[in-house]
Write a structure and sequence with these properties.
209 residues; mainly alpha; Arc Repressor Mutant, subunit A; Tetracycline Repressor, domain 2; 9 helices; 0% strand; globular
Length: 209
Amino acid sequence: MKRIRLTREQSRDQTRERLMDAAQAVFMKKGFVAASVEDIAASAGYTRGAFYSNFGSKSALFLDLLKRDHDVIMKRLHSIFEGEATRADMEARLLQYYSVCYRDNKCFLLWVEAKLQSSRDAKFRAQFNAFIRELLLMTTAYIVAFSERAGTPLPMPAEELALGLTALIDGMQFFYTSDPQGCGAEMSESVLAKFFSRVVFGAEKAGTA
């Protein structure tokens, strides 16, 4: 079979993806501080020079990893709008997503590492906080779009709802990851489903959770 020759841009994209995949594995195994540029490059099969030709720093790569994960989340959320879905369909899909999203995020430890690094490093904290504000704006915009598309009235300002939902899911992921026996899947899904059903969709839907 004839080997397909990649363009320079395709080759660069492939190198970046391999470095990011390697960094994700190394960060989750060693932690951000303990992981070195050399560790990441070697794990991906490249040199230190290849790393710096694609990323300005380890922190820059770290933020790109988090953005990539968030992009996946937003893509899944926007898929809720697909097809000729009714309001009931879209609400059911969103409820299902938020009830189980805590267990599907394989990058949760990356976000924990980012928060720890943010508390230790002022320069990284400034970058990370700016990044988080951007993500919250994206989440807020999604909530507004969902409300308009589904015709579901918002129980509070969209920016407050975005912050509250993000904090709740982060907290449930932490409890589920650190103590799966005390806060197992059934408990986690019940908490998220009931909160979402009552707070987001209104008290009249509480009985459906």
